[in-house]
């Protein structure tokens, strides 16, 4: 079966998308790097509402679902609610929306200096997920790679899923499995907490091929949420 090969290239101030056929069991998505620019911090409210203040509770809950732009390609001042994040990424930043519960993506130019980000939006099981692969230095002169999947949704919705990242090369196999975090929680906090796949440079080199790193991605719904959806 011939499957599409998607390649997201960063060129000056815009993202250019190309496609070509490739043989394989899963789509392979090639991502080029781009240097990460400073983001404004993302804010969300945590609160407890009294029944007599239901309208205030609803207003605050709606405000809590506002997030800043998730694309590190630009220093983008955009802010919006969760339901319009994906249209913004697709229409303004031309980020591809990839389909399927299981995909493989290839991040290129892994040798470039930190900081750098690779991102992709993954659509499956009726939701959108944001893959973030980041190269940064926690300690000067010692870059590391951090990979995580985040749900473009609320924390309670994120609890309904499990994601798996897999690296395989030369008879070596590495797997990370976890519950995704919500984009409302900010990817910076996920990386700071270490709640993600972390690779040092030597480990990343073991799984890379000519400066590119292939990561398998699989997303499943938890049994509890699957049962609730069927009821």
Describe, in plain words, how this protein is organized in 3D:
- The chain is an alpha+beta fold and 231 residues long.
- The protein contains six helices and 16 strands.
- The chain has helices at residues 54-64, 85-91, 155-158, 187-193, 201-207, 223-230; strands spanning 2-11, 14-23, 28-31, 66-68, 79-81, 97-99, 102-107, 116-124, 127-139, 142-151, 161-169, 172-178, 181-182, 197-200, 208-209, 212-221.
- The longest helix has 11 residues, at 54-64.
- The two termini are 36 Å apart.
| Helical stretch tally | 6
What is the count of β-strands? Answer: 16
Tell me about the largest β-sheet. Answer: 8 strands, mixed
Q: Mean pLDDT, as a whole number?
A: 75
What is the share of helical residues?
A: 10-25%
Order of helices and strands: EEEHEEHEEEEEHEEEHEHEEH
- Shape descriptor reads globular
**Distance between the amino and carboxyl termini:** 36 Å
- What class, by secondary structure content? alpha+beta
Estimate the strand proportion.
Answer: over 45%
How large, in whole angstroms, is the Cα Rg? Answer: 18 Å
Task: Give the low-confidence spans.
Answer: 1-28, 35-63
């Amino acid at each position: 079966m011939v499957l599409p090969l998607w390649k997201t290239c960063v060129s000056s101030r815009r993202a250019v998308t190309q496609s070509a056929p490739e043989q394989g069991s899963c789509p392979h998505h090639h991502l080029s790097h781009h240097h990460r620019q400073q983001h404004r911090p993302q804010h969300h409210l945590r609160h407890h509402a009294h029944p007599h203040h239901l309208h205030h509770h609803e207003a605050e809950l709606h405000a809590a679902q506002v997030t800043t732009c998730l694309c590190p390609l630009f220093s983008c001042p955009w802010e919006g609610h969760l339901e319009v994040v994906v249209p913004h990424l697709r229409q303004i930043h031309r980020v591809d929306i990839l389909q399927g519960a299981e995909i493989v993506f290839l991040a290129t130019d892994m040798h470039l200096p930190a900081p750098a980000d690779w991102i992709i939006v993954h659509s499956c099981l009726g939701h959108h997920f944001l893959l973030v692969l980041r190269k940064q230095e926690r300690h000067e002169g010692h870059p590391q790679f951090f990979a995580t999947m985040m749900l473009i949704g609320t924390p309670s919705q994120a609890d309904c899923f499990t994601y798996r990242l897999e690296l395989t090369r030369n008879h070596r196999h590495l797997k990370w499995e976890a519950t995704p975090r919500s984009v409302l929680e900010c990817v910076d906090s996920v990386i700071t907490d270490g709640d993600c796949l972390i690779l040092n440079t030597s480990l990343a080199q073991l799984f890379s091929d000519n400066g590119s790193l292939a990561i398998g991605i699989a997303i499943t719904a938890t049994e509890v949420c699957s049962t609730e959806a069927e009821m």
